[in-house]
Amino acid sequence: MDELHKIAKAYYETANSENKDLGHRLFKRMDVDGDGQISLHEFLAFLKNEGRGEMASPSFFKELNKNGTGRLDLMEAMTLCYIMESGRKFCNGCGEFMKGIFLSCMECFDHEDRSFNLCCACFEQGRYVHSHKKFLDNYVLLETKRLDALKEKNAAKTKLRREAEKKRVGEEIKKNVNPVAVAFFNFKSCVEFKCFSKIFNLLIIYFCCRLQPQRLLRNGSPNL
Where are the domains of the chain? Predict the structure, then answer.
């Protein structure tokens, strides 16, 4: 939890005045009696009202209370805010807050409204009930998603380049109005898009252009 306190403090100290004001207003919402500290009862009531029942436990409050006073000060409350906003997970096996490496169900991560996450101990000892079996730890999962996003981005770029090249070639062909080139370009497009029903006719046009170029140049390229 020390690392989370340090991260939360760094975010708070480097935040602009507007974001700091948001933090102070949130602290005042938790501090119902206005004594400048958050009691366990205020902590539990706030989290339940926010729909974060998985966090509403005395053991989690104790972990947040770095100073051991039994009440949360401003920076300890900011650590809570950081945990809530960053989507830090609680184990779906034992219910404990997971400060370090944990494992996520791949199928639930991609397709369900809520993810299913386990601490290393619950995963290793099988202390959970879940229908899916494929899990990855948070670091591998992040890298996997990053690589998938890069693949999609590169595929989109390749598609755009091909479309631009096809458009360029088409414009060049229109400028030259060469029936042989038109037939060959149409044939290439049909092969690429698997329009096999037109390929035979295009071959006939191509060979006719080769055998009788003068007649086709006079009459124009036949329409398919």
Answer: 1-88, 177-224
Closest CA to 79 of 22, 6, 144, 146: 6
Sheet order of strands, 102-105 included = 117-119, 102-105, 135-137
220: region left, alpha or beta (phi > 0 left; psi from -120 to 50 alpha): left
> What is the model's pTM?
0.57
Q: Contact, 222 vs 205, CB < 8 A?
A: yes
The single-letter DSSP state of residue 132 is -
- 34 dihedral zone (left: phi>0; alpha: psi -120 to 50; beta): left
Can you identify the CATH homologous superfamily of domain 1-88? EF-hand (1.10.238.10)
Give residue-wise pLDDT tens across range 174-186: 666 555 555 555 5
pLDDT per residue as tens digits for the range 27-57 = 999 999 999 999 999 999 999 998 888 888 8
